[in-house]
Structure formats: structure tokens, C-alpha cells
Write a structure and sequence with these properties.
Number of domains: 2
Oligomer: single chain
Structural class: alpha+beta
Low-confidence stretches: none
Strand content: 25-35%
CATH class of the largest domain: Alpha Beta
Largest sheet: 7 strands, mixed
Shape: globular
CATH topology of the largest domain: Aminopeptidase
Number of helices: 11
Radius of gyration: 20 Å
């Protein structure tokens, strides 16, 4: 079987959006925006095997395929990908999906804890009720003493947000940190294509200056996913304030908020756990024995 892959581009948005809309996806990476903004850094390509949409990409773990998107001969498609050594592993099936797939014994299925998605109840992040959130509420109380406003991102704000992102990176020496440098490239792809992607966001102003912003997209009818969140860390409570305000004013129609994975970063893991996730999206990888 010959498989023709081509680089992922904006022209593929419609077919992927249609699939994701018809199939309730839960994995944070399974939205067009996420795939698109990282496409150049990860050499992301799209093709079809047995009429299933197949996405090939590259991460630190090597060359991977996302789970095939479709319902035609899925086990045969997985076998073709792995047996023909098109990738090192297949990524993104949840544990419940793996059980339904009922794979043959020739494959190894492993949990990928570093890539578990953190999912929160939106009302929990809005209300922050109970003693466990005392610290968050105190940070927000301090933050709300400032002269702030949070507004929806519009076209005329994008240049200001780009300037803020540039300064954020300069302050953190992004050029000397590969992960931050790569993230900055992806963020600029997002900002440069903001109007072509199905995203929405908010800019946080303090004393009429942009001091933070966040951008999200709809993952499914009940879930939003936060794609990027940046703020001036010199301002105490700003991240807690931005998180709470965005949930309250822009995400209230969703039951859940997916805040993506911690990628094995212990500091990030502690920060995500401190908001007490409702559940995890437990992703797996499939390999040949």
C-alpha cells in the first residue's frame, strides 16, 4: 500500500474540524489549532490509510503517529503503520479506547503519565471554594486591588500581544532555552493566524498596559482547552487572577476546562495539582513488542 503524506496546512482545517466535531475528542492535542501551530517545529504531515486521517509528527520521544482518526479497519491501520516502521509509536489513545480496541498481543501499550491531561470543573476554577483554595483566593484578592481589566482579544490587540510575548521571552532568555524558544515559535504562529483558527482569548490590562493574555479553543461541546497562558510574573497573583477571570467571563458555558499536560516537569505538575483536577485524560502509547 502506498501512502502519500503532505505537510499540514490551513487547507486541512475543515476536514479535521469536521472529524473532531462528529467524534467527541478528549485529548488536548486533538484540535486543529494545536497541530497547526506546532507543525513546522514537529514536521507534522497528514495522509490517509484505509480512509482514516493519519497525522505523523515528531516529538522528543521520536517520530510518532497520532491515533488514526476514523472508523475503517483501525486495527489493520495500526498494524500497517507499525509493521512498516512509519513511526516509533502511536500516541493518544485513552485507556478506555485501548480496551475497546482489543489489540493483539504483538503490541505493548504503556501509560504516558507525563502527557496525561489535567481536566478541571469550570465552576471549581471560577468559585475556588473551600480551604484547599485559600492560597489561590488570597493571591487573587491581592491582585484585584490593582487597576485591571480583562477584555476579549480582537484583531487590533494582536500587535500589542505580540510585543508582550516578545518581552516575556526576552526576560526569560528564550533563545537560550530550546523548549521556550520552540514554544515562542508556536505562539507566534498562533498570533499570526489568530483570525484563521477557531480560537478565542482574553488580554489582561493593568493600568492600560497588557500584562497577560490567554487563548483557548473548544475541544468538544462540554470542554475548552487552554492553548497558551502568559503573564508578567513580577505582578503578584496575576496568574491566579488571569486563570479565574478567564474561566468566569469566557469559559462559563463549558462544564470542563482541559489545561493540558505537565510534560514531566515537576514544577508544572505541582502547579497543576494545586488546582485539584477533576480527572485526568490518561493517554497511552502503542509500540511493537
Amino acid at each position: 500500500m502506498y501512502v502519500d503524506f503532505e505537510p499540514l496546512e490551513l487547507k486541512h482545517k475543515k476536514i479535521l474540524d469536521e472529524y473532531f466535531k462528529l467524534n467527541r475528542v478528549e485529548v488536548s492535542e486533538f484540535n486543529f489549532t494545536e497541530m497547526f501551530i506546532w507543525r513546522k517545529l514537529r514536521n507534522t504531515k497528514i495522509g490517509f490509510i484505509n480512509e482514516n486521517i493519519c497525522i505523523a509528527t515528531e516529538k522528543t520521544t521520536g517520530k510518532i503517529f497520532y491515533k488514526p482518526f476514523g472508523n475503517k479497519k483501525i486495527k489493520e491501520t495500526i498494524k500497517f503503520i507499525i509493521d512498516n516502521k512509519l513511526c516509533d509509536l502511536i500516541y493518544g489513545y485513552t485507556e478506555s479506547e485501548i480496551k475497546e480496541l482489543n489489540l493483539d498481543d504483538e503490541y505493548i501499550v504503556e501509560k504516558d503519565r507525563d502527557n496525561f491531561d489535567y481536566v478541571y470543573l469550570t465552576q471549581d476554577l471560577i468559585n475556588l471554594k473551600g480551604r484547599k483554595y485559600d492560597g489561590k483566593r488570597n493571591h487573587i484578592k491581592r491582585f484585584k486591588q490593582l487597576n485591571y481589566k480583562i477584555v476579549e482579544i480582537t484583531k487590533d490587540m494582536l500587535e500589542g500581544i505580540k510585543n508582550f510575548q516578545k518581552k516575556w521571552c526576552e526576560d526569560r532568555l528564550c533563545d537560550e532555552d530550546l523548549s521556550l524558544k520552540d514554544e515562542s515559535v508556536a505562539v507566534n504562529e498562533l498570533l499570526n493566524n489568530f483570525e484563521n483558527l477557531s480560537v478565542f482569548g482574553a488580554a489582561l490590562f493593568i493600568d492600560n498596559n497588557i500584562e497577560g493574555y490567554t487563548i483557548a479553543t473548544e475541544l468538544n461541546s462540554e470542554t475548552s482547552v487552554i492553548i497558551i497562558e502568559k503573564a508578567n510574573p513580577q505582578i503578584k497573583g496575576i496568574y491566579q487572577g488571569l486563570n479565574q477571570l478567564f474561566a468566569e467571563q469566557f469559559l462559563h458555558k463549558y462544564k470542563y476546562i482541559n489545561r493540558e499536560q505537565d510534560m514531566g516537569n515537576e514544577g508544572l505538575r505541582r502547579a497543576k495539582m494545586s488546582y485539584y483536577p477533576y480527572c485526568f485524560i490518561e493517554k497511552t502509547v502503542i509500540k511493537k513488542k
